[in-house]
Amino acid sequence: PTALLLAAALQGALPGLAGPWRLGGMVTLLALGAYGMACAWRLQASTLAELQDAMQSLVQGDLTRTPATCDDTPAGALGRGIELVTQGMSRMVARVRSEAQLIAMASEQLGRHAGSLSQRTDTQARSLEEAARNLHHLLDTVKDNSAAIQAADAMADEVQRAAEHGAQVVAGAVASMQELERRSGQMHDIIGVIDG
Q: N or C: which terminus of the chain has fewer CB atoms within 10 Å of its end residue's CB?
């Protein structure tokens, strides 16, 4: 509207103003136009500075600052776009944080399970080492028992031979005794014949 009033004054479209009033009206209109343009420029500069600050905050990672300009001007549309980008990035950062927390919890749980598995593996390894020592001890005992059994078997064979030899000696002694008894009986008969 200010630009239209200025253009109308310059072209003489205000016929009711004559002479010096016309010139004074034109100056007033020019001053009003300059003031309006200065206000519009200041508003636009302020809006652009606010948009630039919001973009700079977004670039630096501050997702809490959004521009206040949301009117129907191109700057307002740009402000709404910046706000939508900020909201989208904020949601994405929240999802990334949530996923990072889930990963941290899963890796902590995995670490606990790995520690538990390591302890069980160490326990089983110690049990296997103990079982191997016991098995070696058992094998040594079996070897010792086998040697003792072989020695006892050899002694039994020797005792059996000695017993067989003793039986032969006893059998010989019995036979000798029987022979002596038979001869004694013969001598007794001979003595009985002589005495009698």
A: C
pLDDT at position 195 is 77
Determine the 3-state secondary structure of 63 from DSSP. coil
Length of the chain: 196
State the DSSP H helix or E strand holding residue 168, giving kind and residue range, or none if neither. helix 74-195
CA distance 68 to 2: 26
CB-CB contact of 75 with 51 (8 Å): yes
Dig out the tokens for 84 from the structure.
């939508």
Give the pLDDT means over successive 10-residue stretches in the chain (196 positions): 50 49 55 62 65 77 72 74 82 89 91 90 92 92 89 89 89 87 83 76
* Pairs from 100-104 (Cβ < 8 Å, separation ≥ 24): none
